[in-house]
TrEMBL record:
GO molecular function: peptidase activity
Boundaries of every AB hydrolase-1 domain copy: 31-263
Family per similarity comment: Belongs to the peptidase S33 family.
Organism of origin: Bizionia argentinensis JUB59
Protein name in the entry: Alpha/beta hydrolase
GO BP terms: proteolysis
């Protein structure tokens, strides 16, 4: 369904699980988990069906960022981190959600970090998964070279410095398989996803170039779990370590996953979801 969050702005939203669960003689409210997908230019489909297993402890809200996927098209100039972070609050206000748990994957993690900065008292908890705090091209290229040799580094550099259909297609063939340590040629979620290349190319040449999120993380007022894979080439694990250092010590938790790439639940789903579940259930 599409939800109107402001005049002329409708987001595609899918809700899984009940919010009120019977517990003997009472009804207990489960927390709401809001999932922020990666990209930009993609949609929420990469979370399905894996995250359904959490519906016994949370109500899950999947949605496509403004202008993405099945949400209404919007001018690319609106697709800034500030606006996308504010959309989380607007969506919650529209749906009547108070104190959500917000999980941001990759680009969704960029949005979640800006959300922490702009709305520190809004979330109950935040999960930052396989994400970065800046463009960090040098770290990206070094990791691609480590995983795929000089050819992978060259192809990655061509794409990240000159994003277009030609460089993107070469990147998808040679570099994208290194995103995951286990699933390379059989990642069906990427086939299901809608993709708007203009959003991605504009983002790389635009806000991403000067993105700097570390300073805003000091404003966090809730528990934040950072998940990272040691083999992640696009959001290298050292970026997550920087994020951990920037968050208030009393709130941050950090889990490094060995032999995992981008999106640790893809490579080690059992371990990843046990950790996420534990974080959700903690007081």
């Amino acid at each position: 369904m599409k939800i109107l969050i402001e005049s002329n702005v409708r987001l595609f939203v899918d809700i899984e699980g009940i919010s009120l669960a019977p517990d003997k003689s009472v009804m207990r409210e489960k927390p709401t988990l809001i999932l922020l997908h990666g990209g930009p230019g993609y949609d929420h489909s990469s979370f399905k069906p894996a995250f359904s297993q959490l519906s016994d402890i949370v109500q899950i809200v999947y949605y496509d960022h403004r202008g993405h996927g099945r949400s209404d098209s919007r001018p690319i100039k609106e697709l800034t981190l500030d606006i996308l972070a504010d959309d989380i609050v607007k969506l919650c206000d529209t749906l009547g959600i108070i104190k959500p748990i917000v999980l941001g994957q990759s680009f969704g993690g960029f949005v979640a970090q800006r959300y922490i900065e702009r709305h520190p008292n809004h979330p109950l908890k935040v999960i930052l998964s396989s994400t970065s705090h800046n463009f960090g091209l040098d770290r990206k290229l070094a990791k691609f070279e480590q995983l795929g040799g000089l050819e992978a580094r060259i192809v990655a550099e061509k794409f990240w410095t000159n994003p277009n259909e030609l460089t993107y297609n070469a990147y998808q063939v040679l570099c994208r398989p290194f995103y995951s340590a286990v699933i390379s040629t059989n990642n069906q979620s990427s086939l299901r996803s809608t993709f708007k290349s203009k959003i991605l190319f504009k983002w790389i040449n635009g806000e991403y170039q000067n993105m700097s999120l570390l300073s805003g993380l000091s404003r966090a007022q809730c528990a934040v779990l950072v998940l990272a894979g040691e083999l992640d080439p696009v959001c290298p694990i050292d970026d997550s370590r920087d994020i951990v250092k920037a968050l208030p010590e009393q709130f941050v938790q950090f889990e490094e996953f060995q032999n995992c790439g981008h999106g640790v639940w893809r490579d080690k789903p059992n371990k990843a979801f046990v950790r996420i579940r534990k974080f959700i259930l903690e007081d």
